[in-house]
Amino acid sequence: MHSLIDIGANLTHDSFDADRDAVLARAAAAGVERLIVTGASDAGNVKAAELAALHPGVLWATAGVHPHHADDYTEHSTALIRELAQRPDVVAVGECGLDYFRNYSSRDNQRKAFHAQLEVAEDCAKPVFLHQRDAHDDFVAILGDHLSGISGGVAHCFTGNAEQMQAYLDMGLYIGVTGWVCDERRGHDLQAAIPGLPLDRLLLETDAPYLLPRDLPYKLSGRRNEPSVLPHVLATVARLMAKDEAEVAAAATANTERLFGI
């Protein structure tokens, strides 16, 4: 069993309300000893910070507004993220970025919210927890405007190809890998890119309750993903990298500690 950190778990999701403590216990039993709880909306940011405060040394949080919620982004959102980012257990600004796949919010509002959150990250000297889907060119352009001022970041739940991955690596980003890498239908580009990912840029995450690995050899209730599944993601990544699981686990943990200061 390896000591792991799940850098992206949506533990405030209501699917965890009935058994959140049991979920954390199963994670710890699987070697997932620390987790970062994703904040993605004004209300979610408060909940994530409150949850982290209840589990010091085990849980941390991010604070940001997901592009799906960019239409609801206000000056209050900026102020709240800025306030929460002062807390030592809130370790990144985000989840922020662009999503042109769903377009739940207008693209113009997505871009405005992304710029605003990157400015907060610059001011607060916190890394960024980034989301990008079907918006690579605009994402790179906006991030490039702020790159010199931010304290690093991660391309959370990276699902792109080798060329896109290299663009993010060239910008100094870490790459967050989820159970998408286990998907035989959609994961081909990511699987092909993983062998070219430097070990010192890898981070591991589940994005629970989403992205349950399709090839998981055991069943979970309700097909809800949870952090205890992270060792399965590790095993797939190690196989694709042709490296020992222990080496990959140690690198991912050290990278997470370095980026987020935990």
Descriptive report:
- The protein has helices at 20-29, 42-54, 75-84, 107-124, 136-146, 162-170, 188-193, 230-241, 245-260, and strands at residues 4-9, 32-37, 59-63, 90-99, 128-133, 153-155, 174-177, 202-204.
- With 262 residues, it is of the alpha/beta class.
- It has a single domain (4-260), classed as Metal-dependent hydrolases (TIM Barrel).
- The longest helix is centred in the middle third of the chain and has 18 residues, at 107-124.
- Kindly state the percentage of residues in helix: 40-55%
Oligomer: single chain
Q: What is the total number of structural domains?
A: 1
Relative strand content: 15-25%
Please report the total strand number as a whole number. 8
- Alpha-beta classification: alpha/beta
Which fold does the CATH topology refer to? TIM Barrel
Over the alpha carbons, how many angstroms does the gyration radius reach? 17 Å
- What would you say the CATH architecture is? Alpha-Beta Barrel
Q: Largest sheet, if any?
A: 8 strands, parallel
